[in-house]
Batch of 3 targets.
Target 1
Amino acid sequence: MNDLPASLETVRARFAEAAAAASNEETLEELRVAYLGRSGEVTAIRRGIGRLPPPQRPGAGKAINDAVAAMEDVLAQNRDRLAARSAQEALAQRIDVTFPATRPALGSLHPVRRIIDDACAYFERHGFAIVLGPELEPDYYNFDALNIPAEHPAREGFDSFWIRDDLLLRPHTSPMQIRTMQRHHPPVAIVAPGKCYRRDAVDARHLFQFHQIEGLLVAEGVHFGHLKGMLDGLCRALFGESQRVRFRPSFFPFTEPSAEVDTTCPKCRGEAPACSMCGGSGWIELGGAGMVHPNVLREVGYDPNAVSGWAFGFGAERLALTRYEVDDIRRFVDGDVDFLEQLGALA
Ligand code: PHE
């Protein structure tokens, strides 16, 4: 026991190091028992005093007492350290009821849905009914009844998805003209929005699944001027009061005369020769229109000498491209939440 001070010092240092590393009160208590407890290391050293020559005993006793006091200090310091840390943790975990809540992510209506709703609302204000019909149609509704007999070249213009020889995914909403007129006597005034399908390669202007809005008005004395007025009003309601509409002569088997309908490019208003939306023409094509062909009226049992009507079919994505000044139709279907949120924030 001659090297008592040295071995006490080693024990004390080992104890201090272990105590500093302790991460909880239990570990500290285990250390206290292991060093200072009844069968602890320091207690064992103290028991050795009895084997020392009597003159050395008081010195050894004092050295041990000093070491024990120092170790108890270390214990106390580390208890304080742990207590301070857990108080800090409690503070960090405290719920701050004044903290602003996390906003739940709210979706918004898809821009194509919105433009369809707005277009329908415009027609409803003018007394039109909204009708919905099947996306899978017999060729009768899609073609024959619309004055497009089998072998007619116009069938080729609708690159269709055929399900069976006589059943296809509708490439336009015009079948709803027939379905409506077969069910109701004139006058009829309807809009029929819905999905359409064509075997088109997807690019900036084409999707193989898209939406159309069909319109049909049949009554006594309906003429082309009514069509122009309604479509002009539609474009102003959707895109702004200064919007204009242009009709270009065209051909559809189910209308005569027929027209392609364009509206002023809202991006450049015809003033940018390299406009990314209209290619500099100043006009954006919305779809087809015309006066309902007498053959179509006859097919549904209407008398073409008693009633007349107009019809139109607009691409809903076209309307949305125009309103939101988007130059690639694929943006509407690629599920980009940032894009949808941006448009959702617009009026
Ligand atoms: N159904 C025609 C198309 O999809 C558009 C149209 C509808 C034309 C009604 C005239 C009248 O191309």
Note: The chain has twelve helices and ten strands.
Target 2
Amino acid sequence: MRFAPMRLATAALAALMALPAAAQAEGEVNIYSSRHYDTDERLYSDFEEATGITVNRIEDKANVLIERIKAEGANSPADILLTVDAGRLYVADQAGIFQPVQSGALEERIPANLRHPDGHWFGFSTRGRAIFYDKAKVDPADIQSYTDLADPKLKGLICTRSSSNIYMLSLMAAMVERLGEEDAKAWAEGLWANRARDPEGGDTDQLRGIASGQCAVAVANTYYFARAFTKDVRGLANPDDTDRIGIVFPDQDGAGTHVNVSAGGVVANAPNRENAIKFLEYLATDEAQKYFADGNNEYPVVEGVEASSAVEALGDFKADDMPLIKLGENQAKAQAIYNEVGYQ
Ligand code: FE
């Protein structure tokens, strides 16, 4: 009777010990990624060729990967988590998913505002959150700043996605940082009062809303619009649709346009830490920057690396240089403001 539970305990212990041993392998790195772009194949194979380190990948939605790493705990084979949005990275970091990394190469090549101050994560490409408009209905002079979106003269014209979305939370967190909580709340109230419809769908659906005539103004990330020029996007595939849509990079005379990142960090219990750091350093090389950014029509973070022609066609803009860690630090306040004003 006494031996059965002991055997179980021994078996369980052996299983626990076997996991990290299996995950820790000379010449391998395990990446949990919420990315899934064609150019990623080239990204990984070039790294394998250059270093002899084999890349093992698990791809899934960001929240699934984060929950999985948490559940795997100390036995997680994950070396790197690649995902998007500083707000989401903040939540993952608060859950203890990342560890600090010091790397001269990463610190030199990636602007300080686009990475965690202690190296918990590093941004490898950026996207702007821009204002789009129907050229036939709106004078772009009326939408030159995010704060313009709360002006009553835009009543019934604006489409955004739901406030529960991380892009909307990060934008509000940036407004809290810029305006303070009180003015950010007034802004949220004004924006909500100006809605053309209740929030539905993702960023592409806001652009489709302009094409279909439901929305005169929309807020969306830059890559969703750039993508419509490289792929047939349903509802935007007709050149007449995209011709109808203009883009404004807000606050060019002020703080600059709100940007966010695609980013990666080394996982707290990474079994292959050194290889993981090598991979992150590789992502900051000129060649990898190109693949990483182009895969999702984003902007490379390393100076001197050019964006793709579809992205360049959107035009140059001044990006807000706010430290992106603020988007996480202000997230609870942003959520509270949306709740208080009843922003769905
Ligand atoms: Fe997106």
Note: The CA atoms of residues 26 and 272 lie 8 Å apart.
Target 3
Amino acid sequence: MTATVIDGKAFAARVRDKVAVHVGRLKADHGITPGLAVVLVGEDPASQVYVRSKGKQTVEVGMKSVEHRLDEDTSEVDLLGLIDQLNNDPEIHGILVQLPLPRHLDEDLVINSISPAKDVDGFHISNVGLLGTGQKSMVPCTPLGCLMMLREHHGSLSGMDAVVIGRSNIVGKPMAQLLLGESCTVTIAHSRTKDLPDVVRRADIVVAAVGRPEMVPGDWIKPGATVIDVGINRLDAPEKGEGKTKLVGDVDYDSCAKVAGAITPVPGGVGPMTIACLLANTVTACCRANGLEEPEGLTV
Ligand code: NDP
């Protein structure tokens, strides 16, 4: 068997197109431009790349993008003051504080100071609780992107066995909640899970969010299963030339693709969907803030 490749890049482009259409309607019919504010504290190079990319894509779909770049030694009081200002700014519908924060800042305190209605990352404790109890919430972008791809590929996920490897607050746990919401039978595996290969072999859907390069081999995969690889790991690639690197996921793509029914590649799978879902969440937040109907297909 050779797996169908789930093309996250093409899917993300379709999501961005939908977002752009809705932004156009909001402007034309209501005179509203959705606005996304991104706050970056410090100089982390990977975070800088993400923030640039988010800003560029926000503008490309017609939304207002505001970036706040703060010094590494910004105090908690100053950061909370900025978030308060953004919470009260009617032109800002989504606020994202880029993680990780410098160590002197309390990440939970900062995230929970964002207005839940503007928490487009879906990390505020209120949104976590709403998702966990099956209520309307802001859904974390990466798991939302994974779910959109799974829904498109399968239609109904009801009754399927799903194994999520990883229990982080930003990927593993919300992913499991979303799959439960789709009536999957969900197992969350982690570093203490016994007999992980056997657990994974039971799954119709495997979501790997571990952060260990190519950890899941093909012989852990049930024939025909769908494999969603969230991992982004940068490895040295001397075969491509001196100093070159490459991105790999948490699953061993070549061996898994021989057994799986469908699989997301790295790069070009889950990664592009994350920013597309951030834009989708911003439009959703803007519609909710203005009491307008939410765009179909951009949230769960
Ligand atoms: P975390 O480090 O927060 O969590 C990793 C999880 O994997 C933990 O729950 C850990 O278990 C589990 N784990 C670690 N080792 C093993 C093992 N040997 N067997 C089973 N489980 C294990 O990572 P994140 O959730 O933040 O990210 C996971 C991956 O996804 C990373 O590669 C990250 O770069 C990528 N990512 C990609 C995004 C995208 O846009 N595509 C967005 C966010 C993340 P325990 O809890 O027991 O320690």
Note: The chain has two domains: 30-117, 141-271.
